[in-house]
Amino acid sequence: MTQTLPTKNHQRLQLSALNIPIRLLLGPGPSNAHPDVLKAMNTPSVGHLDPAFLTLMDEIQSLLRYVWQTENPLTIAVSGTGSAAMEATIANAIEPGDVVLIGVAGYFGHRLVDMAGRYGADVRIITKPWGQIFSLEELQSAIATHHPTIVALVHAETSTGARQPLEGVSELCRQHGSLLLVDSVTSMGGVPLYLDEWGIDLAYSCSQKGLGCPPGASPFTMSPRAIEKLLSRQTKVANWYLDMNLLSKYWGKERTYHHTAPINLYYALRESLRLIAEEGIENSWERHQNNAEYLWQGLEDLGMTLHVEEQYRLPTLTTVRIPEGIDGKAVARELLLEENVEIGGGLGELGGKVWRIGLMGYNSRKENVDKLLEVLGKKVKG
Ligand SMILES: *Cc1c(COP(=O)(O)O)cnc(C)c1O
User: Fold this and answer.
1) What is the pTM for the complete model shown?
2) How far apart are the first and last CA of the chain?
3) 161 touches ligand 1 (CB under 6 Å)
4) Ligand 1 and 215: CB distance under 6 A
């Protein structure tokens, strides 16, 4: 129905009711939310201090600990997207002058460098070509050189499709008293990740990738070692909204008002995490791996080349090289507008060179791979 709305200068603005196309989101995120998650999100809001909501917050904390495989008491959702949880991690972990060693092998490594610098870190960088990973030897030598307070790595580099192995890194960190900070935005829920077993002190994620939820409520966790550092700070956390000293009093026993939580997003996040718990986290990882392997085979059958070496490939995000003579941007646009299928293009070093195909959360299903191979196949085979 078209309505006529009065505007300030008494002209009339013609607007129809919201009419957004339904797309299959197979790019680097967001991914489609599970229908049950959307249904949960439609539940009418209660107040942010309502006992029913406080119970839901506790449940979110328990479910996050399960999906991340951690016992960290301070495990919460940040109100905001993955970048807000990333900034919460940086803001709470770093004090001005701290030496922070960051592995940069893609776009999100660069974002960590930018954020850490803004919070006064003495940033040291190691780099790799986009699509490669850091070996334990490389990390060991960089840690020995820089003696960092914090080592920051991106587990799942969404810009390249590479999975950075994390086993053994925390042992290297502990030898030098460093904390280990990990971006798990595109791995949580879809890629094996054992926070406690792997000694990860600080981690964050988002809702709209591996968890199959709309964007806006983002997982965050800190180990007791990281909290010790927070409590012994000489300076205030330089970000009021994301200060865990304050936020932990809302999520903890005190229940002190801090900000109005995005209530309905938390409903959605709880349902998405509940669905993962119902499936079982190991089963979710296995499903992502199986569907990714099915996609890789299909892309190779179409004559295409995958960008990342198989053992380091992410099951959640695949980079495939754009065949010679094909306009990658134009194809992605055609898939979107003609087929309602979204895929991503390359960023930075990989700009114009690869497509990025996401199979994340609820979207990691065989029928979606079939659909993608069918519509992309028509474009690359001509
Ligand atoms: C998507 C992403 C982010 C940022 O998350 P937003 O929800 O877009 O703010 C950070 N790191 C990685 C690795 C990502 O893929």
Assistant:
1) 0.96
2) 41
3) no
4) yes
